# Entry
Amino acid sequence: MLLLCIDDFQALRWGSNFTVTLNGKDAPFIAELLNHVDQTGPTCYIVSAIIPSGFYNEIASGRLEIRIDETTGVGDGFAVDFVKLLINYNESIFKGRFSGYVYGAKNATVRLLGTSTTVTTDDGGKFTFEAVPGLNAVRASAQGYVEEYDYGIVLSAGTEWEPFLYLSEGIGSPDIDFSKFAATEAWSEASSWAIAELQKALDWGLIPDALMGADMTKPITRAEFAAVCVKVYENLGKTKAQPVAENPFTDCNDPEVLKAFNLGLTNGTSPTTFSPNQLLNREQAATMLTRAYKKVTMEGWTLETDGNFKLNYEKPAAFADDDKISSWQRTACTSWLPTTSLKASGTTSSLQGIPPRQKKPSNTPTQPVSRRC
# Structure
């Protein structure tokens, strides 16, 4: 994440147009923030932007060069007081909450500027975001309407900003295509046996942004696999998931985790914690995938009523360590072994055993193993 402390950026007042490059590459996800706020001195404010994975390698090499240009020649006297790059930061520290409304179009899409995170307004036009405290902006859009923007201050508590946006009928402009800024390589490292499976996952759109360009030989975390399961749900159901409106977790505001929680694909480790960086084990992976499959294929399924929805499958021969599978995860583990066909998308998924005929339910899968789920 990139934090910029800005002073006297007044694009709305003066009609300025800023372009931004990050290490020589176009960075419209930063420019859009500067072009849709008015901030005057003597007080400066912080704006924040999530850096896409396509920029990671150069930043990891130690290079961080940001160039800001005003293209209209109006001479806006802007300044940047400081820039801060956050790496592996504690998300729970950097969050505030705000809600707003969109009128004129039903079920509008709203995006938090500086991120690719979007939500859909409810029937009353309401939307809610968790955001980094500071100066924030949102973009509202809908098919057949002209997009609209608003900005305001988000605090870590007691936020007063409540954006109201009205969409008028007309031809809108396309939003930023964040896929252009993803890592050019879908993974940095992968075991030879996993490459074919990873390529399938990439082709089917099952690799989430958080794992694009990652080292796939490493173990996978709860948050990362939650993002994978959201992709599975969206791929099978041909629909987009939405994050839960009220985040119950104090240690995680990852939108993919909140989508998985909203769908019932995962639970917290307590009523108020998710433990996003905790490593996942194999039986947990099987359970989350089973929930994603049920959510798509069994009308009325919820996590609370899961026991009422049975899967029809042929149970494989017991593994040597079958007694080590947790009772509440047994159905999920056996139904995905040796292979369960996901006919809705024409794909086949498997969580294969570890020779000789062992499930190793408590083992932590690597990222490609979890992708084979």
About this structure: The first strand starts at residue 2 and ends at 7.
